[in-house]
Specification:
With 50 residues, the chain is mainly α. It contains one helix and no strands.
């Protein structure tokens, strides 16, 4: 049986801080806990924005 866990946090960040950094750090940590950092290649159906 699968169970869901939910955590909530409030971050106080400097006005000049990178707002994407916390999400990136959490994603990397979760991937490393699984034992691998795997990034899927971009889908061939989506054009690359230039």
């Amino acid at each position: 049986m699968r169970r869901a866990n939910v955590h909530e946090a409030v971050l106080v960040m400097h006005p000049d801080a990178d707002l994407q950094a916390p999400g990136a750090a959490i994603t990397v940590e979760l991937c490393l806990r699984v034992g691998r950092l795997v990034m899927a290649p971009p889908s061939a159906g989506w054009p690359i924005a230039r």
